[in-house]
């Protein structure tokens, strides 16, 4: 019989409900029995012992909060009776020993990727069109309109066809009520599959709201981010549009590119509007150069590459009370597999590492990285407090509704994405991954800002866990969406790729799910599987202005 509850760590004094529980119900876990004082919705927690006001609450074996009132055993934990609390941390001792998983199944496996001049391997082959400043966004729109559809990269016209049906109904004199009741045809039209350049996966336009009007530090950070995309292994080349007078100068971008790739080894075209003059002249030149670049990009073909060339971004968004016990530990095991195979993984979202700093600091291979992690965490939290916020304000209303009622609870579960391997590097936004193994990258907890940064740092695939559902994607890296629960998987099947609700349902272990995810990653990396975010054209791209974003 599958248990209705789960005690995550032997030291915990709370238990997670795996199903809706009723007040007065007696539930059993192992040899322990609990009588519920109140109803406990699935994904929420209840106290296993009497907790007086001010008592420490432990989950995942770490401090996750302190009680605001007396909480009798069997009572539901809520935002009314539990407040965020987390353990302090020090540099500590190095604790880098870990149990490497058995990777014999994958040691001789390869994926078919795009090999770049610097030795990196892409899981896709895109052309980028990049503005140095928001003033050029409209010109990107013009280029997109001119290129995308005629080159065979146009998206599904299902909703355009539905709109045409509504227009026809209106023309025939249908009333508002009849329009609202109309049965609109939802049949998916055939999408054109004939690309002029079959080896190019698409042309991506990275519009943004930066480049000028902020601080020079903002401009430098933006240029570093854009350089990360231009030098990315999933990118074949780039067209850059500059106005000319903005803070984010082309020279600044070229400096950042040189830091990441002293020899770029791919087509790279820059056009500056104030130097060229007529907008029409610049756009005509941009079209010619982009087309020429696409011809060169089409010469790239997929070839076998070792799995050590994988760099996984680890992300979560729309998290729920099951995230930390199903999907996150599952991709944590996937992370350990990739690290054991010589690959790289990136754990980010620093506001969601609050409470597990000591563990991550101790796992840093060298003291310098441990100290840098401590500095970045403390500085980030101090900046949040300076504007009246703090890491404790990170959980969203959706998180809280589904059981993540303190930042420490959310963080302890979120950190599971990083697995158990040693931390080989600590990076500040948006530095490039240069070492295999587990990399910690300072980013906000905001899903899109963090995903955008992970890709800039080199992630050629992103694993994104969600308990509530999110369509998030990225312009150049496949974002694999992983459901924490089966109900979500079926409810939002069109935007979810993998289900790990099998873990809480007792059908699969964390290790089995993690291995299944790696097999799926290999197919995606080889171009054999198209993830939902790519299929829907979900190209989310948000640079982080280094203010306070949780």
- The gross shape turns out to be globular
Tally of DSSP helical segments = 17
The pLDDT mean sits at: 94
What structural class do you assign from the helix and strand content? alpha/beta
Low-confidence stretches: none
Main beta-sheet annotation: 7 strands, parallel
The tally of beta strands, per DSSP, is: 22
Q: Tell me the fraction of residues in β-strands, as a range.
A: 15-25%
Radius of gyration: 25 Å
Short structural summary:
The chain has 17 helices and 22 strands.
Structure description:
Helix 8 packs across helix 16 (510-525). The longest helix has 20 residues, at 367-386. It contains 17 helices and 22 strands. Strands 18-19-17-16-20-21-22 form a seven-stranded parallel beta sheet, sandwiched between helices. The protein has a four-stranded parallel beta sheet with strand order 12-11-13-14, sandwiched between helices. Strands 1-2-5 form a three-stranded antiparallel beta sheet, with no helix packed on it. The protein starts with a strand and ends in a 15-residue tail after the last helix. It has helices spanning 137-147, 158-171, 176-181, 216-230, 250-260, 273-276, 279-297, 327-340, 357-363, 367-386, 397-401, 407-414, 447-456, 486-491, 501-504, 510-525, 532-535; strands at 5-6, 14-17, 26-29, 32-35, 45-47, 56-59, 62-67, 82-83, 110-115, 121-122, 126-131, 202-205, 235-242, 268-272, 303-306, 311-316, 344-347, 423-427, 437-441, 461-466, 479-483, 498-499. Helices cover 32% and strands 18% of the residues. By secondary structure, it is of the alpha/beta class.
């Amino acid at each position: 019989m599958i248990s209705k509850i789960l005690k995550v760590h032997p030291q915990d004094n709370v238990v997670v409900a795996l199903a809706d529980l009723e007040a007065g119900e007696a539930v059993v876990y192992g040899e322990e029995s609990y009588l519920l004082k109140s109803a406990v919705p699935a994904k929420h927690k209840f106290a296993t012992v009497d907790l007086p006001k001010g008592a420490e609450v432990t989950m995942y074996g770490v401090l996750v909060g302190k009680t605001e009132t007396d909480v009798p055993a069997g009572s539901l934990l809520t935002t009314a009776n539990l407040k965020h609390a987390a353990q302090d941390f020090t540099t500590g001792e190095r604790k880098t020993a870990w149990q490497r998983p058995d990777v014999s199944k994958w040691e001789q496996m390869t994926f078919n990727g795009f090999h770049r001049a610097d030795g990196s391997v892409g899981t896709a082959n895109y052309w980028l069109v990049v503005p140095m400043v928001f003033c050029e966004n409209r010109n990107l729109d013009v280029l997109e309109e001119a290129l995308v559809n005629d080159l065979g990269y146009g998206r599904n016209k299902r909703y355009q066809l539905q709109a045409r049906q509504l227009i026809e109904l209106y023309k025939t004199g249908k009333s508002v009520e009849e329009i609202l009741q109309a049965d609109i045809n939802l049949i998916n039209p055939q999408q054109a599959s004939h690309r002029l350049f079959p080896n190019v996966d698409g042309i991506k336009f990275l519009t943004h709201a930066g480049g000028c009007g902020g601080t020079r530090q903002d401009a430098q950070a933006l240029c570093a981010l854009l350089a990360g995309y231009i030098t990315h292994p999933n990118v074949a080349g780039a067209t850059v549009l500059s106005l000319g007078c903005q803070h984010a100068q082309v020279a600044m971008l070229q400096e950042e590119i040189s830091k990441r790739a002293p020899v770029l080894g791919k087509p790279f075209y820059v056009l500056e509007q104030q130097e060229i003059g007529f907008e029409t002249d610049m756009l005509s030149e941009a079209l010619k150069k982009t087309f020429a670049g696409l011809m060169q990009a089409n010469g790239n073909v997929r070839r076998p590459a070792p799995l050590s060339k994988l760099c996984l971004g680890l992300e979560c968004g729309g998290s729920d009370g099951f995230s930390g016990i199903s999907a996150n530990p599952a991709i944590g095991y996937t992370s350990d597999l990739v690290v054991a195979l010589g690959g790289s993984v990136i754990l980010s979202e620093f506001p969601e590492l609050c409470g597990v700093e000591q563990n991550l600091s101790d796992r840093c291979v060298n003291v310098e990285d441990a100290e840098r992690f401590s500095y970045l965490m403390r500085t980030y939290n101090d900046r949040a407090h300076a504007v009246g916020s703090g890491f404790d304000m990170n959980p969203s209303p959706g998180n809280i509704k589904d059981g993540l009622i303190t930042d420490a609870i959310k963080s302890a579960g979120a950190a599971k994405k990083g697995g158990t391997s040693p931390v080989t590097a600590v990076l500040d936004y948006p530095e490039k991954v240069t070492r295999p193994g587990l990399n910690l990258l300072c980013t906000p907890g905001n899903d899109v800002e963090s995903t955008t940064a992970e890709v800039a740092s080199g992630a050629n695939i992103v694993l994104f866990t969600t308990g509530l559902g999110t369509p998030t994607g990225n312009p150049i890296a496949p974002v694999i969406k992983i459901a924490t629960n089966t109900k979500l998987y079926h409810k939002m099947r069109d935007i979810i790729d993998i289900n790990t609700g099998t873990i809480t349902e007792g059908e699969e272990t964390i290790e089995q799910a993690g291995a299944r995810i790696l097999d799926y990653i290999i197919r995606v990396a080889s171009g054999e599987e198209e993830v939902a975010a790519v299929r829907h054209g979900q190209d989310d791209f948000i640079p982080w202005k280094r203010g306070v974003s949780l």
